[in-house]
Amino acid sequence: MSRDDRCHRIARDPEFTALIKKKAALIVPATIFFILYYFALPVGAGWFPELMQKEVWGKVNVAYLFALSQFFMTWGLAFLYVWAAAGWDRQEHRLLKKFGADSKE
Amino acid sequence: MIAIVDQANTALWMFLAFVAATLVITYFSARQSKGASAYFAAGRRITGWQNGLAVAGDYMSAASFLGIAGMIAMNGYDGFLYSVGFLVAYLTVLFLVAEPLRNTGKYTMADVLAFRLSPKPVRAAASVSTLTVSLFYMIAQMVGAGVLVRQLIPGISYEAAVIGVGVLMVVYVVFGGMLATTWVQIIKAVLLISGSVFLSYLVLKKFNFSLGDFFASLTAISSTGPDGETQTRNFLHPGLIFKNPWDQISLGMALLFGTAGLPHILIRFYTVPDAKTARVSVVWAMLIIGAFYIMTTFFGFGAASLLGPDYVKANGGTNMAAPELARLLGGEVFFAFISAVAFATILAVVAGLTIGASTSFAHDFFVNVIHHGKEHRPGEEVKVARITAFVVGAASIGIAILLGPSVNVAFLVGLAFAVAASANLPVMLASLFWKRFNTSGAVWGLGTGLVSSIGLILVSPDFMKDPIFPLKNPALVSIPLGLLATWLGTVLSKEEASEEKFVELTVRAQTGLGAEKATEH
Q1: Would strands A60-61 and B230-233 be described as parallel, antiparallel, or unpaired?
Q2: Is residue B235, in this structure, part of any structural domain at all?
Q3: B241 contact A CB<8A
Q4: Which residue of B31, B96, B151, B375 shows the fewest CB atoms closer than 10 Å?
């Protein structure tokens, strides 16, 4: 059995298609979200200066807090991804075992 | 006079200590480094946190350490926007690129493309794009290094500094390969973070650790305006640098989508044992890079508040804001330390660029295009890479000296990101996720992304008094052009082999089946 053939059989396996769907269900919306969240910052800075200059905490304004929130948004999504991916790893491992190929190959 | 000599010596001794440490590492790496996988990918035995530090060290250039601190010191908030973009970009790397790349490639970005496309044309095109991005980035770093070292250690000329940096990076890469490069980057990341933490601590101490007082001091920064009048500005307000919001959007696009297309960053993910470790290493890198960029708040705004824009301008200019702040708060020894950190920063980045460029030339162009995918003699691939590293080093020394210290090269970094975003990322994503994609789409996409980015820069405000293209960074236009060409090139031709191999690529990219393994000790 060639490796190519095995790939095709894995690709047809319902467990594999379910896994791909699961990955996409997280990655696609998360990617759209971070792109929109990120570009809201230059859009705000460029076109909504009054809103961005509003002081919220002492002299700290919306502009700075929004920029700072981008760091925590990024870390938050990264940890969400790592948490979800740990589950995907287990499914991948099971799948490869089923087809007689462990990840050592 | 005596004070200047002493200060020069402290900085010089710290430089030399760093150089000595990196040369010892290079010596031991050279003894371990046997075979292509060891040379190009450090045997794929780098751990997650090590690679995270190395990615951070590979990525945080002098432009981000000295450049952003200086921009914030001169004009406040808008400089901080760079900090944000540099970090958020890693979500693109984490979600879309790092793991599939590790699972399907061997040494270069082009490996992913060559998996299902006709190898010769895509490797040739990807190699041209890789070399272009690396060279732009490299020249910016080299000119920056020359200017900086001249300011930091009085008595060392621009040329001597450029040659010194160039020779060291070639030594690391030629003798120590990826392993030595990795450790140089790790040490640099540790030094950079330590220096930044201490500098931030000293700034906050000056404000009695009151964040309220710190931010309050930023609302009325006085400086001399363009017409010689005194102006007082709130440095927390956006819009002091970017007058045209589209400039920010375009730059943001280049950062957000370019990072995941920078060849010298991508090849780092081949140095770890598997895709899972690649993922972990991205997260480590994100924690380190994010912490660093948040700290630009303290030493960037701190320099604005404690030194003031006029002082910065009069004492070495924007790039010297962070070192001058260190001198004010920590004295001459800390100034010397921060200077040595800046030097280490540049060396780690140029070493990464050199190995990225030489790997692509040797693996993609020489072995796979010229020699049809076979080494004619054993060890030839590594040998060619070493020669290429030497040539890349010599060429960048030559170009940097020819351009001279007064040429403005900051736009070259933006251009490198724009090419990476417009040429490399679209074809890589299409290759991984679009079944219909084919060779013609890849070549069109890479070519158009590259040519349109460079073309638009040539008619932009950096090159023309009455620019035809109004934006400083071309990404806003060149990314859509790259995507359009990728799509058009694909749909106008048919390539069944590529569609057939898509299934295999998907299975391997998503499960790690058949991925390159770490070498045994």
Answers
A1: unpaired
A2: yes
A3: no
A4: B31
B227: left (phi over 0), alpha (psi -120 to 50) or beta: alpha
Assembly ipTM:
0.93
Using CB atoms, which residue from A63, A75, A103 is nearest to B512? A103
Q: How many domains does chain B have?
A: 1
Using one digit for the tens of pLDDT, what is the confidence trace for B14-65?
888 999 999 999 998 888 767 889 899 998 999 999 999 999 999 998 878 8
Which structural domain, as residue segments, surrounds residue B112? 2-511
Q: Of B357, B352, B348, B289, nearest to B89 (Cα)?
A: B289
Question: Would B220 be classed as within a structural domain?
Answer: yes
What residue segments make up the domains of chain A, in order of their start? Answer: 3-98
Answer for the pair B157, B148: CB distance below 8 angstroms, yes or no. no
> pTM for this one?
0.93
B428/B250 Cα distance (integer angstroms): 21
Among all chains, which residue has been given the structure tokens 């060409």? B485
Question: What CATH number does the domain containing B21 carry?
Answer: 1.20.1730.10
Bridge-based pairing state of the strands A55-57 and B221-224: unpaired
Give chain B's end-to-end CA distance (angstroms, integer).
Answer: 54
Contact A39 B513 (CB under 8 A): no
**How many A-B residue pairs are in contact by the CB < 8 A criterion?**
160
Q: How far apart are alpha carbons B119 and B117 in whole angstroms?
A: 6
B432 touches chain A (CB under 8 A): no
Q: How far apart are CA B71 and CA B184, in angstroms?
A: 27
